[in-house]
Amino acid sequence: MIRRRDFIPLLGGAAAWPLAAHGQPGERVRRLSVLANLTENDPQAQARLAVLARGLRDLGWTEGRNLRIEYRWIAGGGIDRIRAVVAEVVASSGRTIRRLCRNCSGRSGLLVFAGLTDPVETGIVASLARPGGNATGFMNHEPALSGKWLELLKEVAPGVNRVLVLVNSGSDANLIDLRTIEGAAASFGVQVSSGTVRDASEIESAIEDIGRTPNAGLIITAGIPITDRRKLIFALASRYRLPAVYTFRFFAVDGGLLSYGPVDLDMVRGSATYVDRILKGEKPGDLPVQAPVKYELVINLNAAKAIGLTVPPTLLARADEVIE
């Protein structure tokens, strides 16, 4: 008999169904299904997985001995790939995670997410303190942070008065971010529009449109397909000389102008501890959803130079990291 605690999905979102696994004689093997919303050869994906494996190993879980990890990659394959993976065991966005959680009872599986914006508003958990049900995890930011992105864009490029917010099609979390930014727009004297995208061609079209507008800027949310196409976004921002604010450090490291967000790998480390606690008998619904405790500001001066922008010294002085 396989008990439900034998299987835990870890997500950026992710899920796993109970399937038998066998390890050393007398030792039960648990199964962890990991959804990665980056391509397999993406350095950031490999960094996340290495941190996850190290965290689990430090807690006594060794792949091949008492744990089987299955990795599923949904970036780079288009919407058909996402649908195929979701049909198997994975949720690809807040909306589909919510549908999955309705069925995530009994022996169906347990859910640990590693980076969602507002799991209460999107219906994934009942509350942050007492999630209830079979899901818990780590938020990638609190909704109010979205207004900070707009503030930083105006600080790095004061002349901006038109802002395109690039969001992922079907993402409840991105829509929450968009509403927050729209609510703050008037106080910063900007007009906000949204570009809802599903693939590279829609990303290119949205940025080309705003690029023809004087005094324009970008706010880039994270997730499929945006994260997977970030090099394309950097190239377009440079071509149209658009200042842009991104969500995670790796965007700025890879060529984006400025990023402000949580320490990405901290969420993965935390997720390993939650997987461990659930496998040892705790219920996900009793483990509070945790918000980030540290945010970092990263500025890429090479990207600034490429669009002819001088970053204000006061902003540089506040940066946690400056890339030259």
Question: In words, what does this structure look like?
Answer:
This protein is 36% helix and 20% strand. The chain is of the alpha/beta class and 324 residues long. It starts with 6 loop residues before the first strand and ends with a strand. It has 2 domains: 4-140 and 264-286, Rossmann fold; 145-262 and 295-323, Response regulator (Rossmann fold). The longest helix has 16 residues, at 43-58. The chain contains 11 helices and 12 strands. The strands form 2 sheets. The chain has a 7-stranded mixed sheet with strand order 7-6-8-9-10-11-12, with helices on both faces. Strands 3-2-1-4-5 form a 5-stranded parallel sheet, with helices on one face. Helix 4 packs across helix 5 (172-185).
Assigned CATH superfamily of the largest domain: Response regulator
- Top-tier CATH class of the largest domain: Alpha Beta
Share of helical residues: 25-40%
Terminal Cα span: 57 Å
Q: Report Rg.
A: 20 Å
| Helical/strand content category | alpha/beta
**Mean pLDDT over the residues:** 81
